[in-house]
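2 proteins. here.
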Amino acid sequence: MMHARMGRWVTAGWVLLGVAGGIGVGCGSDGSAQEGPPGGEQAQIPVGAEDQERIDIGLRISPVPLKLEGLDRNLVGLGSYILNAQAGCSDCHTQPGYLPGGDPYQGEPEQINTTNFLAGGKPFGPGLVSSNITPDVQGLPGGMTFEAFLALMRTGREHGAIIPVMPWPTYAKMRDQDLKAVYEYLRAIPPAQPGMAPPPAP
């Protein structure tokens, strides 16, 4: 929403790189969705060696535990790599970003705030607050279906209005597969609540 918040997807203004490199979105050759094994992870999409390295890194660096049941492990891993190693989404969507004594910008060993990871709450000026993009009670990141998420990333619009700050023109250039990977990672992380905003400057 655009009243007391900046929109669902206020993110750091860093360039997201399209790195899926041949990873599909879980569709058959005719474009039909492929169902995964019941009760477990989806069937894994074949990937090349370079992509597999990114996937392995992504799964290793996720600061929060991942729920992979019903999801494609490869897409989740790639999404984690894009989000945690390239896009810096946590810079805007985690408040505070680091634990006390764990801010690498202060020369401290990095300790990410996992309690409020990607739960929003960071202020960006009057009426502008980053949104919670963790799964809702239905398991949808920020309450959005993939179709709604994809449309938002392609157009930068929510409820007909352009979302301020979010660098959607960059995201709009990404492949559907890359955005699907980001979405799948957001589905796999735990729900969380926003942290406390810092007090206003005197």
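next one coming up
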Amino acid sequence: MKDIIRHNFVFIAGIIATAVIIIGGVYLFGNNGSTKPNGKQISNDILVPKGSNITSGIVNGKYLPADSSAQLTLVEFGDYQCPACGAYSPLTKQLITEFSGKINYVFRGFSFIGPESLKSAEAADCASDQNKFWEYHDYLYTHQNGENKGTFADVNLKSFANILGMDSKTFDKCLDSGKYKNQVDNSTNDGKLAGVNSTPSFFINGVKMENIPGSYDEFKKLIQNAMNKSPIVQGTPTTAYHGHFDIKVYLNDTRVNLGLAKYQSKEPKELDPYIHLHDGNGNLVHLHKTETTLNQFFNSLKMNFTENCFILDGGKKSCNSESSSLKMYVNGVANTQYQNYVPQDLDRILISFGPVNDKNLTTQINSVTDLSCIYSLRCPERGKPPSENCVGGVGTDCTD
């Protein structure tokens, strides 16, 4: 939800089906007369520009081309280094296999985790020149192994193409020339325009899923209802909900230690029953209710956070000036919602105060841990989370 992880997993907002036609190679959505869904519908010029990689399903292991008669279009923005995207990839494959010919599935790169995100996205587009985009796309996700550690270095990206039976000379020339660099950058920019702030992010007929489904059955039901032209009202889990997000706060390049005992919640005296730290872990925040803001979290720690100032519990202020500014990044992407931001499951959040042009920002962003993926059981390949002392009040899943 990686960053992304960013990445957000939970449930989904209201969605509606619309007709799909193809004009000049670009998919456009037409209103079918049914109730307009809650949520902004994004222009198809942004979501599915000409030249996008589109498949209408998988039959006998082979990807089908786009189908103008498909009932709906599903657009995903993802990063090839994003573990949550990798975990979700088998679900989208299962979905388009089951609904072959009925869904046009579009993958757009949202490459923000680092240089290997950019290069792997370029490589996938180079593979499309040899009609191997989807095969290469799948290969990248099944061979994730850390972020910016050389897994998707150029030499490996070229070897992947060779393994998949592509013409190596043609592929290597494409990758070395940076042929698709601008296209990769434009894809990420389109995602930002569409409101993407975590990966994976999905759009059904132009409407963004504010929270992505937590299981294949939920995803399937959502798609089926959209096909039936029946608006879906996503159930908002106010009970039995336990999400997580990672956070770091730096003030003038000094990390605020949220692992201190005074910031930790202990049953039955939670600092806040719905959003809190516990077990001495200052990097991981536990969520027990949706629509809970960062303002609520910091207030529970006796801190104050606005777009202009960050005030510690002891009263020390870090406020905007001509030379210094407060910044917030969610899943590696600048975010200006500040105290009003509603953290999502798997978010990685950085709050930083320092020079206006802070050279340490990239290092700080990369320092934000990625524990929520483990604690929310989204990446079982990384092991199980440690036993927790569940802390929460009435209306949470910590009731036993």
